Amino acid sequence: MSTKIAIFGVGLIGGSLALCFKGKPGITVVGHAHRPASAEKYINHGVVDHATISIKEAAMDADFIFLCVPVGNLDEYLTKLSQIPLKKGCVITDVGSTKASITAAAEKLEFKDVYFIGGHPMAGSERSGVEAATPLLFENAYYVLTPPPGLPDKVYESLVLLLAYTRAKIVKVDPIEHDRIVGAISHLPHIIAVALVNQVCDYNETNPLYRRLAAGGFRDITRIASSDPIIWRDILLNNRGVMLQMLSDWNKGISEFIAMLETEDGEGITGAFAKANDFRSELPEHRKGMISSTFDLYIDVPDHPGIIGKITTRLGENDINLSNIQIIESREDVPGIMKLSFRQEEDMERAKKVLQNMDYSISL
Ligand SMILES: NC(=O)c1ccc[n+]([C@@H]2O[C@H](COP(=O)([O-])OP(=O)(O)OC[C@H]3O[C@@H](n4cnc5c(N)ncnc54)[C@H](O)[C@@H]3O)[C@@H](O)[C@H]2O)c1
Ligand SMILES: O=C(O)C(=O)C[C@]1(C(=O)O)C=C[C@@H](O)C=C1
Prior knowledge:
The chain has helices at residues 12-21, 36-44, 55-59, 71-82, 100-108, 153-163, 175-204, 209-213, 216-222, 229-238, 240-262, 266-281, 307-317, 345-357; strands at residues 3-8, 27-32, 50-52, 64-67, 91-94, 115-121, 142-146, 169-172, 295-301, 324-328, 336-342, 362-363. By secondary structure, it is of the alpha/beta class. The protein has three domains: 3-173, Rossmann fold; 178-247, 6-phosphogluconate dehydrogenase C-terminal fold (Orthogonal Bundle), CATH 1.10.3660; 295-363, 2-Layer Sandwich (VC0802-like). Strands 3-2-1-4-5-6-7-8 form an eight-stranded mixed beta sheet, with helices on both faces. A four-stranded antiparallel beta sheet has the order 10-11-9-12, with helices on one face. The longest helix has 30 residues, at 175-204. The protein is globular and about 65 Å long. GO terms for molecular function: NAD+ binding; prephenate dehydrogenase (NAD+) activity; prephenate dehydrogenase (NADP+) activity. Pfam families: ACT (PF01842), PDH_C (PF20463), PDH_N (PF02153). One of its GO terms (biological process) is tyrosine biosynthetic process. Pathway: Amino-acid biosynthesis; L-tyrosine biosynthesis; (4-hydroxyphenyl)pyruvate from prephenate (NAD(+) route): step 1/1.
């Protein structure tokens, strides 16, 4: 039996899905691009079997259609698809970071023998484009589905079965509930990271030491501030109502900190940190995707020539697979921090022991 999968928008998420499906028994993956140059790029990167700029050509005969374009373009593609003859039983799904508006739009369209199931993989990165796609992106991450009421079980199960190739964990969530939850755990953090980076950027205008001294704490909390501006403009405008409420709650939390500082309320400050520490320690550790797509170790390294070679050789001698290595130049003329990334938790744990035996100081 052959299965045709059409992917509209083969970027970070669409490309990663394509890589999960491509080459699997009986599956053909077709990418839709809105520009000829992008279609060529999809083929050159080897993420799809075919690429086209024709919506009709991509969608006709498809068993599954994944809409992986920015949130602001989802409605437009869904409407276009409702106007062309699709294969009987075709399942259309999306990967947009918000779910309420697209599921409502799908309910209004008159699809005949074609089904829409909203989707949102809770995995991603601050990088974008097909260049950043990887088949490992969704492994162990949650993948939200928002099936409409009355959807035949068989149809839902067919999508779940296909998504098994992503190795993600499927979870059913109500679309409105979804937008509230991701508003808090994904959209609000992106706004905060951007506002923080821009605040420091303004201070840096008066003294460039702000940027030069920025170290682990600043980097940890601001990685997502490098995310794609168009993707995030669309997400935030789409989830505007939820975000305005959450930013108002955020202002209350910040006002509490202002009050604690004004009144020198040390007990209040330690209480706030302890509460946050407790909640954060309950987060699923080292899960790939939403929190981290790799298992990372940070080590303090002295400024010796050949230090990278020494460490990588020792890891190699112990058959430990390193997926990435990065020197975080936090300060000049003093020891720096090296970030070692591993695909497997077991490799990270073994590396930790080897490096501790070499007397390096390690943090996770
Ligand atoms: N980035 C993440 O971490 C993440 C995680 C989960 C879901 N999402 C959602 O996935 C979707 C895609 O995000 P991404 O991170 O893969 O972005 P991306 O920029 O990597 O990919 C977007 C793709 O859409 C195409 N595209 C852009 N504008 C278009 C238009 N006007 N018409 C048609 N195609 C267009 C681009 O060429 C590209 O192929 C978004 O809806 C986003 O909300 C993103
Ligand atoms: O890890 C990241 O860089 C992400 O931004 C991924 C992230 C998130 O906020 O966790 C971003 C948007 C999504 O819709 C889902 C996941």
